């Protein structure tokens, strides 16, 4: 990489993709690294600068690859290690960073470590997992996958003890009280970082260590493990990044940044939920509330923000009334509900409303944090809630209106997941090829949006000051970085709105709309009147001339 | 359409910021600093608890308070009230407080509230009295739901009343409105009420807004407007209605004068309706009322009866001009009769109707008609309390029902006389 800025992740626009469903180069119905490599020009053209790949390790695929059976290999269906290296080099050649998955908390029950551990109670690997003679330890700890699991303990008929699992019962938790586990995980990181991987998205961080009488989440010993891994990474691979998945409110995520000595980044889950809530309520309250509640981070740290990802839209961190509202508004069909969330992609969640899709992406790109675009959302792909679990949002990328949507030349029946084929979101209607040829397509609009976002560091590194206009349907804020200031005004409502902004502190500045470069009247000491179309948003670079 | 000059530019700017709302809670104020905070809190809590998804605004029209009422409305929070901690609405409940200009009084305040409701396209409007200390968050859904569900366009309150509570309502307005307007509405003076945007817009379009009766008798006028113009009424149980004691209120003679003026204005304005209206229909009720509690000192029934007996004699020449011979004879006989005072339902119904016709015909100054009726009202009230003051609610209910029927029976003749006049 030519850019050696150690804070590169602050300026990242991340594209999350599933190798499995991105592009199939060998016609076996499954995407692979050669296929992904052939699509890097597309990703470069989109304007993103970082790729985050879902797991590509050997796995029995009972949790779509998050049930890892070997941390040091690529699953053969995705290609060879050489294919991965080729991909990595090609990505770097284009200035694209690559972030891979690091599933620390658990393995597959098919992993040799677990197979050894269960083989006998005195096996040397036995203590790599968490065992108990009874299933009443850590009583009261919440069950995460409520729809499938009834306990965090599962009975192992081989060694005749219970083993601890916070997720599926086929994913036994590793025992981080055993230093061998911690050291082994560092070797895993060392292996991939040594190949050139730029960062790790660390799965299910809060659950590494269990303690009786607690929620077993975010234990001090968990932070010790993280600090160990971070220090090792910094010492051996400076400039690499750790991104935490801690599905919690920002106050509780803040400790995972430590004093800048734990994670570089962490997902901001509630911000995502509240973007959906605020735009449906047409009221900025949920967003300003969470923004005000979000604690400051150490200078070297950054939030990762997103609209959708490979999981359900989580509703864990909302009140029962809010959850009911979200279900009513976004998942009237109960089949779209999973655990405490909604398994839908962005476009269907927003009823395919282009204005709302644009507004949501505008919020994503202008609020603090590094934005993540989930593959396919840049063209407005749909989902298939009938595929089970969260697979409905992991269907193949729709490249064209041709055979299998241009994803694979295999027989359609052989595809990893069936293509979306309904008349609204099917590949015949929604695909890259068609949108590339249409100037006003969502894809081309997204390219412009990302280009404008990346034209300045004010969005990636700047401060945010909320404005408080009397019109609650309008969310307005000023982003500032060094000498640059950008005024962002969002109409959360589906109706035209007028808003008066108190910009007296910015008096004298000339707003220049950043997409069309249109000049607006100079800001004075009187309230600044703007009118906004339904779900419209403005980004104004404030010039002082 | 809202009057163009009614809303100041500053208020309009605030309304632009609020936009369309589902629920508007209007609070007309004038120096209500001691009580208004609880009213605002109750409104906010009621919205948060029962309509957490609603777009809502609490709108305070202030008639020039000098005790800090508007600031208290602006700053009232629900944070420190334990009962409403779980009542956070999903949407922001906006709050506007604005002074209004022009004639002071509730009429002008209501006009502004209706104008704002009209501009904001509020689906339901609730008006709360800032002086009420017994207001609960539950009053909001009670007054709003029938409107939002299109079951009613005007939602009147039902209050728990002790037998001696509110005789002007129970002895005069309730039976009179029942007979004249043909609806068995328990509280024609709607201290609190809910209504639809259509009704608010209707009232706003009326030319009658102004001083006098429209200021002091606007509650009754609205009731009449609703009933006479086909706005479907309903009633909802709110419980006891307690008012702050600190406020200095007008004495009975003044109140009685205001009521009579309001009644007269309404009957004249709605003559086309009430003169041909048939028997009274029941008004749907929601909720259940708790038992009433006797509040404050009981009325001086003996004094009221003595005043009646004395004044009937003293005012005989005047009463002879107002009442028919038969009615005056009955009144005189009641006054002269030994023992406990008995002023029958039939006699009282005839007294009221004949007085109103005299008022309408202007056989003398209206003030004199009112002043002459006042001792008769005291006599009737004393009679009722002597007979039912110790009775249980069911007996009192039946007695008041009989009174309403007596007014209905008296109505045809009264209507005929009114037409002749």
Structural account:
The complex is a heterodimer of chains A (545) and B (421). By secondary structure, chain A is of the alpha/beta class. Chain A is built from 15 helices and 21 strands. Chain A has helices at 33-38, 40-46, 81-93, 112-119, 179-195, 220-236, 250-253, 269-281, 285-293, 320-330, 346-349, 354-366, 432-436, 442-454, 458-461, and strands at residues 14-17, 50-53, 97-103, 131-132, 153-156, 161-164, 199-203, 241-244, 265-267, 302-306, 313-314, 337-338, 341-342, 370-374, 463-466, 474-481, 484-491, 497-501, 510-513, 528-532, 537-543. Chain A has an eight-stranded parallel beta barrel with strand order 1-2-3-7-8-9-10-14. Chain A has a five-stranded antiparallel sheet with strand order 15-16-17-21-19. With 421 residues, chain B is an alpha/beta fold. Chain B has two domains: 9-166 and 184-286, Alpha-Beta Complex (Spore Coat Polysaccharide Biosynthesis Protein SpsA, Chain A), CATH 3.90.550.10; 301-420, no CATH class. Chain B has helices at 9-18, 36-50, 69-75, 106-119, 139-148, 167-181, 197-205, 213-216, 218-228, 252-269, 271-274, 301-314, 316-322, 325-336, 345-361, 366-388, 393-420, and strands spanning 23-29, 56-62, 93-99, 124-127, 154-159, 183-184, 193-196, 233-239, 281-282, 285-286. In chain B, helix 6 packs across helix 17, helix 10 (252-269) packs across helix 16 and helix 15 (345-361) runs antiparallel to helix 16 (366-388). Chain B is globular. The two termini of chain B are 35 Å apart. The chains are: A alpha/beta (545), B alpha/beta (421). The interface between A and B is medium-sized, with 22 and 15 residues.
């Amino acid at each position: 990489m030519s850019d050696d800025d150690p804070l590169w992740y602050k300026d990242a626009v991340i594209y999350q993709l599933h190798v499995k469903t991105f592009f199939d180069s060998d016609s076996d119905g499954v995407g692979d690294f050669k296929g992904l490599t052939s699509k890097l020009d597309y990703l470069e053209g989109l304007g993103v600068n970082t790729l985050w790949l879902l797991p590509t390790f050997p796995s029995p695929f009972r949790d779509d690859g998050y049930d890892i059976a070997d941390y040091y290999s690529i699953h053969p269906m995705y290609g060879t290690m050489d294919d991965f290296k080729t991909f990595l080099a090609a990505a770097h050649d284009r200035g694209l960073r690559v972030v891979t998955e690091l599933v620390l908390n658990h393995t597959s029950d098919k992993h040799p470590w677990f197979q050894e551990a269960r083989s006998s109670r005195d096996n040397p690997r036995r203590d790599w997992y968490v065992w108990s003679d009874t299933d009443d330890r850590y009583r009261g700890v919440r069950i995460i996958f409520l729809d499938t699991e009834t306990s965090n303990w599962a009975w192992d008929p081989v060694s005749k003890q219970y083993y601890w699992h916070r997720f599926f019962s086929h994913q036994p938790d590793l025992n981080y009280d055993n230093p061998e586990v911690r050291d082994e995980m560092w070797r895993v990181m060392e292996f991939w970082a040594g190949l050139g991987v730029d960062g790790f998205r660390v799965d299910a961080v809060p659950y590494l260590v269990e303690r009786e009488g607690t929620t077993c989440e975010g234990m001090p010993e968990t932070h010790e493990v993280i600090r160990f891994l971070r220090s090792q990474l910094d010492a051996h691979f400076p400039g690499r990044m750790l991104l935490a998945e801690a599905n919690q409110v920002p106050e509780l995520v803040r400790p995972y940044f430590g004093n800048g000595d734990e994670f570089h980044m962490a997902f901001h889950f509630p911000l995502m939920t509240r973007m959906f809530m605020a735009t449906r309520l047409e009221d900025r309250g949920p967003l300003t509330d969470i923004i005000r509640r979000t604690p400051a981070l150490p200078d070297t740290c950054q939030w990762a923000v997103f609209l959708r990802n490979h999981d359900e839209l989580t509703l864990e961190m909302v009140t029962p009334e809010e959850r009911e509202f979200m279900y009513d508004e976004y998942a009237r069909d109960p089949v779209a509900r999973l655990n405490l969330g909604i398994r839908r992609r962005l476009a269907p969640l927003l009823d395919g409303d282009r204005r709302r899709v644009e507004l949501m992406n505008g919020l994503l790109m202008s609020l603090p944090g590094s934005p993540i675009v989930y593959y396919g959302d840049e063209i407005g792909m749909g989902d298939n809630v009938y595929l089970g679990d969260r697979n409905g949002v992991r269907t193949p990328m729709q490249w064209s209106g041709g055979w299998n949507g241009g994803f694979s030349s295999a027989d359609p029946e052989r595809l990893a997941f069936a293509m979306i084929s309904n008349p609204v979101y099917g590949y015949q209607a929604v695909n890259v090829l068609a949108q590339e040829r249409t100037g006003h397509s969502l894809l081309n609009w997204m390219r412009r949006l990302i280009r404008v976002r990346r034209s300045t560091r004010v969005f990636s590194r700047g401060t945010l000051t909320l404005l408080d206009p009397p019109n609650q349907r309008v969310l307005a804020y000023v982003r500032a970085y060094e000498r640059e200031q950008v005024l962002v005004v969002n109409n959360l409502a589906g109706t035209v709105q007028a808003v008066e902004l108190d910009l007296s502190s910015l008096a004298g500045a000339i707003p220049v709309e950043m997409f069309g470069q249109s000049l607006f009247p100079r800001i004075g000491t009187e309230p600044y009147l703007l009118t906004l179309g339904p779900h419209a948003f403005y980004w104004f670079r404030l010039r002082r001339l | 359409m809202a009057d163009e000059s009614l809303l100041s530019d500053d208020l309009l700017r605030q309304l632009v910021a609020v936009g369309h709302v589902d629920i508007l809670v209007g609070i007309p104020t004038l120096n209500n600093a001691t009580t208004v905070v609880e009213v605002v809190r109750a409104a906010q809590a009621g919205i948060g608890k029962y309509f957490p998804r609603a777009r809502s605004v609490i709108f305070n029209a202030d008639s020039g308070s000098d005790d800090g009422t508007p600031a208290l409305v602006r700053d009232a929070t629900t944070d420190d009230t334990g009962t409403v901690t779980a009542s956070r609405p999903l949407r922001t409940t906006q709050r506007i407080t604005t002074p209004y200009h022009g004639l002071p009084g509730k009429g002008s305040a209501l006009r502004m509230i209706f104008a704002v409701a009209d501009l904001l396209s509020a689906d339901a409007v609730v008006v709360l009295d800032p002086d009420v200390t017994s207001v609960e968050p539950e009053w909001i859904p009670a007054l709003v739901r029938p409107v939002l569900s299109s079951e009613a366009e005007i939602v009147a309150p039902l209050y728990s009343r002790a037998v001696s509570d509110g005789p002007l309502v129970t002895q005069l307005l309730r039976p009179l409105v029942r007979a004249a307007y043909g609806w068995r509405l328990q509280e024609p003076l709607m201290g609190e009420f809910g209504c639809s945007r259509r009704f608010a817009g209707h009232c706003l379009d009326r030319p009658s807004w102004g001083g006098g009766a429209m200021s002091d008798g606007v509650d009754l006028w609205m009731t009449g407007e609703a009933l006479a113009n086909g706005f479907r009424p309903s009633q909802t149980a709110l419980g006891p209605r307690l008012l702050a004691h600190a406020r200095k209120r007008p004495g009975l003679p003044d109140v009685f004068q205001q009521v009579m003026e309001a009644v007269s204005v309404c009957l004249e304005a709605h003559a086309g309706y009430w003169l041909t209206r048939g028997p009274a229909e029941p008004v749907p009720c929601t909720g259940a009322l708790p038992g009433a509690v006797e509040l404050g000192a009981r009325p001086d029934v003996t004094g009221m009866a003595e005043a009646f007996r004395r004044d009937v004699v003293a005012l005989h020449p005047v009463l002879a001009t107002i009442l028919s011979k038969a009615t005056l004879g009955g009144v005189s006989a009641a006054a002269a009769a030994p023992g406990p005072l008995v002023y029958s339902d039939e006699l009282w119904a005839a007294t009221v109707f004949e007085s109103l016709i005299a008022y309408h015909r202007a056989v003398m100054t209206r003030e004199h008609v009112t002043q002459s009726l006042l001792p008769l009202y005291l006599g009737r009230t004393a009679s009722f309390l002597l007979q039912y003051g110790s009775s249980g609610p069911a007996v009192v209910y039946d007695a008041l029902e009989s009174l309403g029927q007596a007014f209905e029976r008296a109505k045809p003749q009264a209507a005929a006389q009114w037409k002749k006049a």
